[in-house]
Amino acid sequence: MSCKLLLSAVGRRRLHKGFAVCGKAFLSSGSPKAHQNVQVDVYERLPVPFGLVRFGVAPDHPEVKNVINTFTQTAKHPRCSFYGNVNVGEDVSVDELQEAYHAIVLSYGAEGNRSVGVPGEDLPGVYSAKDFVGWYNGLPSCQELRPDLSCETAVILGQGNVALDVARILLSPLDALKKTDITQPALEALAQSRVCRVLIVGRRGPMQVASTIKELREMVNLPGTRPEMVAADFDGVAEALKDLPRPRKRLTELMLKTALEMPTEKEQERRKKASRIWGFRFFRSPVEILAEPGCNRVAGVRLAVNKLEGSGEKAQAVLTGEVEDVPCGLVISSIGYRSLPIDPTVPFDSRRAIVPNSMGRVHNAAGLYCSGWLKTGPTGVIATTMNSSFDTARSLLEDVESGKLDVSSAKPGSHMISSLLEKRGVKPVTFSDWEKIDDLETRRGEVSGKPREKILTVAAMLKVAQT
């Protein structure tokens, strides 16, 4: 009996390593009873695969993008097929997919932004980190963003890795970015940028910062920049170091050293020559985005001053009643993402913004599974999501082996879906079609010494894929 499984990366563009290994687990597991005839089909809204790796990972982190190799191996497996340019929920419903497949794994990530929820957040000059990252990474839906970089000071709300990615891209030497796969329009805009100071704002303190030491170290060592911290933000931190877990301790020690210690003579010389500045601002929450008088664009951020109640990861920011205004011409919100419902038939917890599940098994929906941020919420790094996806794969395989998931009856799989799509005028992009796009992008990149020059519109991608 052939078992038809569907991996669906639909709501946005989230084909990442966790998604790839989920398919790999189905195809390469050692139990012949359950998996010998498994067919895995992958549906993706965009014509190109790799989602978060292609459109979310910073262009100056090429080593992280090596996870593409894992997906490519899976996609080229004889029992795996890729169907790009298919929007589940619009081109085909989840009900129709359930008719065609024994099991469906939803892995479409977190497409929505968490709102800052303050007056002025819709002013020109205020952007979400998701859209800003999508702009410089070539996500088609973000190519009309055209951010105004004519100001000197930018404020980033949030202190996670994405916030540091954005800060680094804004301040990086252009010569370094020219060797990456950042898009040409973004490169040209950054060449004209006047941004020379970036403040990274968080509501809590140094011991609750959400970034990892790798990203912080990159900021500390970023050529042409120097740090600008508020010494008072680190009061009492040195005394608390001994009680911190090792990863948090190393991260905090690096912040303390950067903020408070006298730099070496060589570092002093480097900082003296720096023309750009970055710094954390702790214990601050935005309460309003300020507009220029008589002009409808951002001129600053009003920040509430906080104090902490409690300690460690559970410490809560409490308002003190004080506020301060920070002049700036660019505000980027990096306070998190939210998954969105895909189809009325799929259970969705709107409060937690996830599909309710137990170890990837969607509640009250036999044959429906989920993985990635849709399963857990927006937390962790690629390796975290990879392990979570392994868990989902294990759950599905256990259900096949135990008989909880009935695979005894034949299912038409992609034959049925392809027929429906053809009637609806939707032409899927296969993995070999993607390789045509890949080849053109790589050749275009070679001309300017880059790994690739991405095609920036869906129409242009389809034109290449269909020739």
Are there runs of 5+ residues with pLDDT below 50, and where? 8-21, 29-34
Overall pLDDT score:
91
Task: Determine Rg (CA atoms, Å).
Answer: 24 Å
Share in helix: 25-40%
Total of DSSP H or I helical runs spanning 4+ residues? 18
The strand order across the widest sheet is 6-14-7-8-10-9
- How many DSSP E strands? 18
Q: What can you tell me about this protein's structure?
A:
The chain has 467 residues and is an alpha/beta fold. It contains 18 helices and 18 strands. Strands 6-14-7-8-10-9 form a 6-stranded parallel sheet. A hairpin with a 2-residue loop joins strand 16 and strand 17 (361-362). Helix 1 runs parallel beside helix 4 (68-75), helix 1 packs parallel to helix 15 (382-402) and helix 7 runs parallel beside helix 10 (213-220).
Question: Strands, helices and their partners?
Answer:
Blueprint: E1 4-9, H1 17-28, H2 32-35, E2 39-44, H3 51-55, H4 68-75, E3 80-83, H5 94-100, E4 103-106, E5 112-113, E6 126-128, H6 129-137, E7 153-157, H7 161-171, H8 174-177, H9 184-191, E8 197-201, H10 213-220, E9 225-227, H11 237-240, H12 246-260, H13 265-273, E10 276-281, E11 284-291, E12 298-309, E13 316-327, E14 330-333, E15 337-338, E16 357-358, E17 361-362, E18 368-370, H14 373-376, H15 382-402, H16 414-423, H17 431-447, H18 458-465
